[in-house]
């Protein structure tokens, strides 16, 4: 299927690895003019080379910390007329309420709610004026299935979800959509971190930790970054113009709820 986004300008935040890199790769494959972002120059260069090797497309790179005002300004300046914005950022670590002081809450809200909101604020008016825009926020399955140890992430990302729903109601008339992708058990570095945490807590090896994790997934396997990236590319497509304000779960069918 031709997704109709050839030559569209795409800005993908926090895309030097993991889910962000998967989305950037999928968009580059579809012919978008992609700008990727990260804080580490060497990782970012490796990501650029990976995309070029897989797709034959060269992407632009921007070293910037999107948790800072200056970093966001640098990123926006690199692609001020983006047609597509994919919001991504590292999530806060698991923990417990007793561990989360004021600084921990502020950090989580800055990274997983305010940073993406402020990028949307900067780029949404231009998208609406040009009458084309696709915004995809990478959030978490925990938005719909909260767990105590992930409450930092859940709280911040749910705030972003509410903001995005409100903006989606207003921007749809101008062919600008805003949707959220809710990953769970996608085989990335974040998933390895969770497996290592289980290894330490339960005294097991990596193979056993991965087996126990996949047993909790209805599909009995991890999702792949490529599957995630392709879902993102579709939400950015011309064909997805009537889909907005939605939360698409990529969890192998695990979520038990009806809506």
What can you tell me about this protein's structure?
- This protein has helices at 18-29, 41-55, 69-78, 102-130, 151-171, 189-202, 206-215, 225-235, and strands at 9-12, 33-38, 60-63, 84-87, 133-138, 176-183, 247-250.
- The model has no long low-confidence stretch (mean pLDDT 97).
- It folds into two domains: 9-185 and 225-250, Rossmann fold (3-Layer(aba) Sandwich), CATH 3.40.50; 187-222, no CATH class.
- The chain is built from eight helices and seven strands.
- Strands 3-2-1-4-5-6-7 form a seven-stranded parallel β-sheet, with helices on both faces.
- Helix 1 packs across helix 8 (225-235) and helix 4 runs parallel beside helix 5.
- Helices cover 47% and strands 14% of the residues.
Outline:
This protein is an alpha/beta fold and 259 residues long. The chain has helices at residues 18-29, 41-55, 69-78, 102-130, 151-171, 189-202, 206-215, 225-235, and strands at residues 9-12, 33-38, 60-63, 84-87, 133-138, 176-183, 247-250. The chain contains eight helices and seven strands, in the order βαβαβαβαβαβαααβ.
